[in-house]
């Protein structure tokens, strides 16, 4: 049988491993930070109606500029952002890929602070950009000094800041983003996939956009918005940065069906986001209950919690899987990550973990 290594693949992709979060049918899936609440039936009906309307003209290519969706996203984000400052793609992973196609690539480098979202380095690899993993401080935080020192030492072309960070949940101060922007002449990408789960009133990196034309803030409908399966990610940036993404995107990359579904979902943002408070409460419950079971936790501003004190993560992962509960082994020694589920799912996880001991 032919192996991958037998094919004339790009030398820089030899030996790499693809993104591989296990996907298996389980009773309780708390492994990829989805919103585990289904969207309400009346919202589903409206989305179906919107998609049905779009199907009537699906013989034509969709609006390449997805104007209506950009208007809806601008309206959702606020901060005086007009549609000319919004871009979208099939998941924020595609947005990040387009950023590196335009601003990274062969001969260029991307710096991130590890451990961080695994797709950041995978997208760097895929676009032929050199990935530089810089270290974090204690408890996975990043201070202004640490961030500035790494950027000044490595002089990357692009800096990725994950705020809050996946897989650790760690918040990131706006002062760090400002300081990195000051010393770094290249593009600064802030991945705010979990922004909606931050404490109420937390300022987003969106507030830093005015006057910073090299700053890009990416968001997604996959997490808080309960829309992971629809694949809609987006970003806010200076219109010139968005013009750069137009050079690398495939024409008509967002299907008419995706655009119709996303616009309808955004019309129901209140219902779509209704579970965010509940998810925050379940996350806070994990933060309180896991230490009681003997597992120290890391601060989290997201919808998941990284906990440590696990003797053998592989074994604990497998024991939970035997009970049809799927969480995530992110490769950090003695630690595992769990997504905040519904109240019942979170309870089932905590009970099972307590039993396993
Ligand atoms: C889940 C996640 C994303 C979302 O990816 P999509 O392609 O929008 O589903 C982006 N960034 C981080 C840090 C994530 O954890």
Question: What strand line-up does the widest sheet have?
Answer: 2-8-7-6-5-3-4
Helix content: 25-40%
Radius of gyration: 20 Å
Q: Given this structure, which CATH class of the largest domain is correct?
A: Alpha Beta
How would you describe this structure to a colleague?
With 357 residues, this protein is α/β, with parallel strands linked by helices. It has 2 domains: 22-39 and 270-356, Alpha-Beta Complex (Aspartate Aminotransferase, domain 1); 41-267, 3-Layer(aba) Sandwich (Aspartate Aminotransferase, domain 2). Helices cover 37% and strands 14% of the residues. Bound molecules: pyridoxal-5'-phosphate. The site of pyridoxal-5'-phosphate has 14 residues, from helix 3.
In terms of topology, how is this protein built?
Layout: E1 28-29, H1 41-55, H2 67-77, E2 86-89, H3 92-103, E3 109-114, H4 118-126, E4 130-135, H5 144-154, E5 158-162, H6 174-183, E6 187-191, E7 215-220, E8 233-237, H7 239-246, H8 256-267, H9 269-272, H10 276-292, E9 304-307, H11 313-322, E10 325-326, E11 336-339, H12 343-356
Parallel strand pairs: 1-10, 3-4, 3-5, 5-6, 6-7
Antiparallel strand pairs: 2-8, 7-8, 9-11
Bound molecules: pyridoxal-5'-phosphate (PLP).
